Amino acid sequence: MNPVLIVEDNPKNLKLVRDLLQAKGYATLEATSAEEGLALAREHLPELILMDIRLPGMSGLDALRALRADPATTRIPVIAITASVMQHNRREIEAAGFDGFIEKPINVRGFLETVRAALETASK
Asked: Does the global pTM surpass 0.85?
């Protein structure tokens, strides 16, 4: 199985997500900017990308558009991770074409269930 790519600029959130995934046996790749995440996605073709929305430089929304525009990465499922949970933010995230949404602060059980479901769907 290919790794799960985590794109998150907050060190504490990155560590939490990495530790949760690795504890469940997932291999991970990490990026702290959208640009770095795009490069890793193209190089490693991860099984799933967990993308923060608010990143330095390019936003997670712009990164998703770049992933979907690239034939090599267009089919990789991308789940948004964000503290922006207002209704208009949620609509914007859904309209952008993310494959799911995880709210910060992260609920461990819900997080792992969302990841598992996304990976199951991707493998079909």
From this structure: yes
